[in-house]
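User: Hello! I'm new to structural biology and keep hearing that structure can be predicted from sequence alone. Could you demonstrate with Spinster family MFS transporter? Please show me the input and the output so I can see what each looks like.

Assistant: Of course. The first part below is the input, the amino acid sequence of Spinster family MFS transporter. The second part is the output, the predicted structure written as tokens.
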Amino acid sequence: MSSAATGAPAAATDTGITPQPPGYRKYAMGLLLAIYMINFLDRQVVNILAEPIKNDLNLTDTQIGLMGGLAFAIFYTFLGVPIARLAERKNRPIIIGTAVAVWSGMTALCGIAQNFVQLVLFRIGVGVGEAGCTPPAHSLITDYVPKEKRASALAFYAMGTPLGGLLGLIMGGLIADAYGWRMAFFVAGVPGILFALLAIFTLKEPRKQLSEEFKRTQAAQPSFGETMKVLGGKRTFWFIAFAAAIKAFIGYGHAPFTASFFLRNHTEEVANLASFFGAQLGFNLQSLGFLSLALGLMSGTAGAAGSLLGGWLADKFGAKDLRAYMVAPAIASLITIPVYVSAMLVDSAALALCILVINGLLGTIWYGPVYGTAQSIVPPQMRATTSAILLFIINLIGLGLGPVAVGALSDGIANFRLNEVGLSVDACRALAEGAAGATRAACAEHVGEGVRWALIVSTLFGVIAFAFFWIARRTIREDTVS
């Protein structure tokens, strides 16, 4: 467990709250991490199921992007701010627990969807629930831990992203292989009920310990407009927000199509790998199940390590010079571009999967530095709202636009290539069972190349993220207030 979640003297935080005893802090941080893992399990399970859902409901890559990204993100992002405003005043554990129950129930309902519209509506419901998780959680964590361990604590919480993705990939793929994609949604929704109850009844609301001075400050809570005015003067905030949004655009854009890339471009090798590893494990492993295990274990564990590494680097070197908070995410954003492109271009699926481990490590280094900086450049009573505004930007651009942009680009590139042989994506979707083998082969080749080059083109945006992180170094010292 991260040092942010353990030990440390019981010195008051900058809100005037005395941190909880070390034992309780471990428990609370562990529970919040588990809740965030469930958050991302329910959010990301749809990605490993994208190909069977597409085939079953006869969808395009653009529709997959809309379902996995924009439909979820619109409500998730827009509801985040009002829920965060509520979290500035009300009981944060109750808000978190209620949110868990809502998104878990809506995830289970995805399993009964009979068409694209129904699935989109249920994914919207998941987004509504998940909007109530991270802003109040960030605010709680900032009250639970000392200032000097803030980036590490938030990075520990942010491990829920790769670890939840890991569980979603493995659980979703294996269950879909054995029982179908609908059952995977049912199983994904079950754990949330338990965690909802634990959040409501065992997480403490530390505001009960507030000093009288801070209570007076809290009584005059800043309006949303006042918070925006403060943030308007913080150049650091806007640069890290848009840098992180671009990183999220790339990550969320890739998520629904990574398994599809392997299934379309390395079909035979993936099937052989599944057969080999299935024999070693002693059960029948299909291609989707193998990819869920490989992508989950390799990118998920690497992503968790990257998140912890980013928080550790930020706290260690940021104690001497706050500009160090921006160095690691900037450099990682640049290095990950050639790493990812090479994974897309190598002929071997096994080698590509190994290269993606490096990408997984580099791709999450920004979590702790970005979330820690956002909490440090505003007064305590503005933190939940600031977190929600940051997530609004990250998720509207990243989650809202990333999957649909990559999906549309994939369809566009495939159509461009297919038009040269008198076909189209729609024509390929409409192929009858008895269609000529040459036609099917042409469709498979060009649709596979479409997703490959969509993934490559989108990863090039990392250059912009690098530039924004590097520029944020110039103002982070003057913008930090706590």
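User: So the tokens describe the shape?

Assistant: Right, they're a compact way of writing down the 3D structure. Reading them back into a model, for example: The mean pLDDT is 84.
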